[in-house]
Amino acid sequence: MRTREDLEAVVEAAGWAPSVHNSQPWSFTIAGDEISLRADVDRRLRAADPEGRELLVSCGAALFNVRTAIRALGFEPLVGMLPDPDRPALLATVRIGPAEAVDEHTEVIRSEIPRRRTHRAGFAGRRVPERMLDALVGEAEREGARLTPVGAEGAIRVLAALTTAAQEVQAQDREYSLEMIRWGRPPGSKYRDGVPADAYPQQARRTHPHFAQRDYARGQGWGNPDDQPMAADTGVVALLTTRSDTRADWLKAGQALQAVLLHAAAAGVAAAFHTQALEHPQLRDFIRAQLCSGEFPQMVMRLGYPTTRTRGVRRPLADVLDEGGNPG
C-alpha cells in the first residue's frame, strides 16, 4: 500500500486527461488503497452529448492515466469497470495490486501525462512515419479499440466536409452556442477548466482539406496572436472505433485514446480532435456505415507534428477529489 500522498499524485495525473471542451467531467475518491472514478454529470454537454458518450470517453482517458500512474509507482492496477449497476455514475474502481517492476516504457509514458496537449491548428509538413502509426494502432488494439489511419483522399474529404457541415449546424443552434459560451474562456480568465483563449491561434491557417475547428472565440477576436502556425498541413486523419457501443465501450475507447495520445506525445506527435459530426446521430451513423466497416466511431482526429505549444489548465486536486465519498 502506498501513502495518501502517492494516491493523490495518481489523481492529479488523472486530471490531465483530455476531455471535450476541457470540461474535466470527473471526480475521484480515495479509500485505503483504492481510487474510485465517478462521472461528474453536471459537466456533461447536454446539447452535444445527451447520452454521455463523450463524457465517458473523457473519463476513460482519465482512467488510463490512473492505471499508468499506479504502474509508475511500481504496482499493478486492479481495475473494476462499471462495478455497480445501481450506481451508474461510478465508472471504475482501481486498487493497488501486487508490486511490479517499473520499466522504462512506463516511466516515459507517465512523464508525458502532464505534458501532452490538444492541438487546435494545422501541423508541420513532416509526415508521421508509418512505423509510428503502426505502433499507435497496436496501442489502441491493446485497449480494446481500433485506430484506423484514413489513407483514401476521398474519405478524408468526406470527413472534412462532414466536420464543417456539423459545425455550421451547431453554430445556428442556441443550445450548442450556449455550451460554447460556457466552456470558451475569455482572455485573462481565472477558470481552471474550459478552453483558454491562448490555447489556439488567433488566426489559424486553413488545412487542405479543411477540418473546422471549434469556434471558442465566437467572433471576439480571441486567441493567441503569438501562436500563428507557419504551416497548415492536415496531418494523418484517423478514426478510433469500437465493435459495439455500450458504456463499457466508451470507457475502453477513452483508454485507447489516451494510450495513443501519450505514446504519440513521447515521439513529438500531437492530436487535433474533431467530434462535431459524431455529435449528430445521423452523421455518426453515416460515418459508421460508410467509413468504419460497421464499427462505431468514437473519435475523429488528426495526428501530426505541431509547430507551437500551448499551455494547459486543470482544476486543482481539491476540486476533483471528493472527500465526502459521494456514492454516485
Features:
single chain; alpha+beta; NADH Oxidase; 2 domains; 4-stranded antiparallel β-sheet; Nitroreductase/BluB
What does this molecule look like?
The chain is an alpha+beta fold. The chain has 2 domains: 4-116, 3-Layer(aba) Sandwich (NADH Oxidase), CATH 3.40.109.10; 130-304, NADH Oxidase, CATH 3.40.109. It contains 9 helices and 8 strands. A hairpin with an 8-residue loop joins strand 3 and strand 4. The chain is globular, with a radius of gyration of 19 Å. The model has no long low-confidence stretch (mean pLDDT 94).
Poorly predicted parts: none
Q: CATH fold name of the largest domain, please?
A: NADH Oxidase
**Fraction in beta strands:** 15-25%
Element-level helix/strand string: HEEHEEHHEHHEHEHEH
CATH C-level category of the largest domain: Alpha Beta
GO molecular function, one term: oxidoreductase activity
InterPro entries: Nitroreductase, Nitroreductase-like, Nitroreductase/BluB
Protein name: NAD(P)H nitroreductase
Domain Nitroreductase: 3-38
Brief overview:
By secondary structure, the protein is of the alpha+beta class. Helix content is 36%, strand content 16%. The longest helix has 20 residues, at 53-72.
Task: Describe the secondary structure blueprint for this structure.
Elements: H1 4-14, E1 26-31, E2 34-39, H2 53-72, E3 75-81, E4 90-99, H3 104-112, H4 130-142, E5 146-149, H5 153-171, H6 174-183, E6 236-242, H7 247-266, E7 270-273, H8 281-291, E8 296-304, H9 317-320
Helix pairs in contact: 1-2, 2-3, 2-7, 3-7, 4-7
Pfam families: Nitroreductase
Domain Nitroreductase: 3-38
GO molecular function: oxidoreductase activity
